[in-house]
């Protein structure tokens, strides 16, 4: 009887403490969600402000508070940006240059990583080191050498200079991400393919490459965002409107005496929407690929 009473007394004493602890946990989580919500609003507000900015006239941009709403939304700014500003052509150029560069980067990086991690040759470590060292080279320090090289190769004002530059500068990061995945990838699968009589090419294209789809999707999204937003290479190597991309085409609305700020805002919104949609729908793939490419201890 005494033991039963002791247990009941202990339970009675601990119950308020558990309830109090649970209540404090709820308050803590509520405060945390409040802080995260504030940070989310701070992050989203510039996008909302840009949309309002794209619907204003020049008089509203300079004559009213930057936080004010447009009095008469100028939806025509988007039509002006797409037609008069030649944004349709720039948008198409951005799409096909980005897709081609991402494809070349993924294929070349996969081939390099497979050769370094699966094939035994003396200079594999040196080659891998050279690719990773290239990641530390500042982009702007290469503009003059690249311009001279492309000029001698007659590639100035040619989209090939942009695709080659994007591919070369995205290779080190892509190889670095793939390297972590290949080191954890079970070799037994490839050894079983060798026992079945598969050649090296069939092992790569039919076994290894399909197995790396999660991490490849991550690298594709990262490279796509970089290529889509890139400005320096296009502004340096491209001079004609025929091959300009969205990031450079915005300058069409900047005149010597008048700048159409509403059309510039509309162009920025148009350029942001594809990347924003890609991130919203493929964010799970980014997390999955980064987890797959991490080195397991």
UniProtKB/TrEMBL annotation:
InterPro entries: MetI-like, MetI-like_sf. Pfam families: BPD_transp_1. PROSITE patterns: ABC_TM1. It is found in: Cell membrane. Its main location: membrane. The keyword Membrane applies. It comes from the Bacteria. Residues 91-282 form the ABC transmembrane type-1 domain. The chain crosses the membrane at residues 27-52, 95-116, 123-143, 163-182, 203-226, 261-282. It is a multi-pass membrane protein. Keywords: Cell membrane, Membrane, Transmembrane, Transmembrane helix, Transport. Belongs to the binding-protein-dependent transport system permease family. This is Raffinose/stachyose/melibiose transport system permease protein. The lineage of its organism: Bacteria, Bacillati, Bacillota, Bacilli, Bacillales.
């Amino acid at each position: 009887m005494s033991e039963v009473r002791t247990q009941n007394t202990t339970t009675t004493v601990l119950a308020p403490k558990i309830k109090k602890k649970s209540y404090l946990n709820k308050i803590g989580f509520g405060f945390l969600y409040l802080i995260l919500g504030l940070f989310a609003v701070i992050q989203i507000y510039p996008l909302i402000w840009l949309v309002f900015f794209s619907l204003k006239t020049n008089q509203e941009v300079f004559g009213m508070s930057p936080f004010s709403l447009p009095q008469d939304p100028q939806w025509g700014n988007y039509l002006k940006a797409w037609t008069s500003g030649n944004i349709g052509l720039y948008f198409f150029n951005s799409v096909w240059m980005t897709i081609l560069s991402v494809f070349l980067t993924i294929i070349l990086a996969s081939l390099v990583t497979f050769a370094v991690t699966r094939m035994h040759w003396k200079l594999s470590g040196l080659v891998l080191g050279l690719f990773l060292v290239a990641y530390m080279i500042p982009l702007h320090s290469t503009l003059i050498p690249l311009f001279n090289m492309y000029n001698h190769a007659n590639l100035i004002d040619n989209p090939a200079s942009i695709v080659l530059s994007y591919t070369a500068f995205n290779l080190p990061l892509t190889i670095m991400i793939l390297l972590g995945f290949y080191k954890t990838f079970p070799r037994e699968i490839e050894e079983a393919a060798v026992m079945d009589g598969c050649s090296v090419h069939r092992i790569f294209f039919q076994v290894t490459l399909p197995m790396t789809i999660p991490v490849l999707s991550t690298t594709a999204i990262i490279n796509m965002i970089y290529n889509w937003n890139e400005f320096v290479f296009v502004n340096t190597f491209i001079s004609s409107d025929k091959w300009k991309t969205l990031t450079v085409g915005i300058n069409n609305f900047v005149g010597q005496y008048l700048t159409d700020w509403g059309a510039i805002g509309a162009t920025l919104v148009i350029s942001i929407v594809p990347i924003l949609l890609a991130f919203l729908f493929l964010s799970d793939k980014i997390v999955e690929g980064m987890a797959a490419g991490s080195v397991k201890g």
